[in-house]
Amino acid sequence: FLMRDDFNQPDLLNLEQAMAAGEECQVVLRSYRKDGSLFWNELSVSPVRDEHGIVNHFVGITEDITERKRGEEILRATSALQRAIGFARADQRLGDLCAAIEDGAIRNHFSVVREFVGHGVGRKLHEEPQVPNYGKRGSGPRLRQGMTLAIEPMINLGAAGVRLLEDGWTV
């Protein structure tokens, strides 16, 4: 596996320290395929000792755990929605709900999409108020009993920007 220049990973230090001490360890590292695509690598390393107990080499087993990490990321992402729903109460300010989305996303190392927003739902599918994925606590209109909102946290693993394809619909 290739590391590229991605050396700011706490588990690299754990691996280095365990190997220096001649101990077993298990770490999860961001690694890169030859084509440059990211994958998550779980690495288990064990020392092999000679008859005198001296470590003469290590044996490592790697496993691509990218799908597991994606599942974990999805669970973290849904926490932004759960936090926002907690603010969807009468007399609460819309900005509090929107700030909860942003806080949950940033806390979990996501970026917030600003080009698209959730919205009110009524006689038409898209009505006021707009429900952005970011906000300022204590701002915006007060929520009222019976309001229907489409709370749609849109968050990214990387940069906040999005790209709209030529069909004008696909993001």
Question: Describe it for me?
Answer:
This protein is of the alpha+beta class. The chain is built from 3 helices and 8 strands; from the N terminus they run αβββααβββββ. It has helices at 10-20, 66-86, 94-107, and strands spanning 25-32, 38-49, 55-64, 111-112, 118-120, 127-131, 149-150, 155-156. The strands form 3 sheets. Strands 1-2-3 form a 3-stranded antiparallel β-sheet, with helices on both faces. Helix 2 packs antiparallel against helix 3. The two termini are 31 Å apart. 16% of the residues are buried.
How would you summarize this macromolecular structure in one to three sentences?
This protein is an alpha+beta fold. Helix content is 27%, strand content 26%.
Name the descriptors:
171 residues; alpha+beta; three-stranded antiparallel sheet; 3 helices; 8 strands; 27% helix; elongated
Q: What is the beta-strand fraction?
A: 25-35%
Protein structure class = alpha+beta
Shape: elongated
Radius of gyration: 23 Å
Distance between the termini: 31 Å
Spell out the blueprint of helices and strands.
Layout lengths: L9 H11 L4 E8 L5 E12 L5 E10 L1 H21 L7 H14 L3 E2 L5 E3 L6 E5 L17 E2 L4 E2 L15
Helix pairs in contact: 2-3
